[in-house]
Design a protein that fits this description.
alpha/beta, about 10% strand, flat
Length: about 180
């Protein structure tokens, strides 16, 4: 009759490693998860300040105020915006043309250039935030212009897409 071999006690080094894993990970893990979730929530909420260099900011004071109200810091523009962006000195440069004021007052569209380097992933959050806020400003101005002319703003949006999510809570949790 053969006897089953009795388990050998772990060696000192592996025992200490196992004990450390058992004690440290349950304590440190929740802290790390909490930090990651907080960082993600801040990114989504946009609570962090974003910096963007602006060429011609004196031409669009209301737009500059709009951006600053949304926690976007306006920086002095570099002498060469393209070179500064390529070098990574700035994430993005917003260029406002000299004729901004006259075109804006005339109700004509104004083309703003947003200079950035798509290969720099670290800059893409800044680019997206600046673009989203400039478009938000444009939307507000467009709505006010329509109202000033007695046109209901909904007239400009003849179609509205309503999203109907059929995923169950179980499916959403899996994602």
């Amino acid at each position: 009759m053969s006897r089953a071999a009795s388990p050998t006690p772990p060696s000192g080094t592996s025992f200490r490693r196992s004990l450390a894993s058992l004690l440290i990970f349950p304590l440190v893990g929740p802290v790390l998860v909490s930090l990651m979730l907080t960082k993600t929530a801040e990114d989504i909420a946009g609570t962090e300040r974003t910096e963007v260099a602006v060429v011609g900011r004196e031409h669009a004071p209301a737009l500059m105020q709009f951006l600053e109200d949304r926690r976007i810091t306006i920086l002095e523009a570099p002498a060469d915006p393209v070179a500064a962006t390529e070098a990574g000195d700035v994430d993005a440069v917003l260029v406002i043309p000299d004729d901004y004021g006259e075109r804006f007052r005339a109700g004509k569209p104004v083309k703003l250039d947003l200079i950035f380097d798509r290969s720099r992933q670290s800059a893409m959050a800044t680019v997206a935030r600046v673009r989203r806020n400039v478009q938000g400003y444009a939307g507000q101005v467009g709505t006010l212009r329509l109202l000033a002319h007695g046109v209901h703003p909904d007239l400009g949006q003849p179609l509205v897409v309503a999203e109907v999510d059929v995923a169950t809570a179980k499916k959403r949790a899996a994602v």
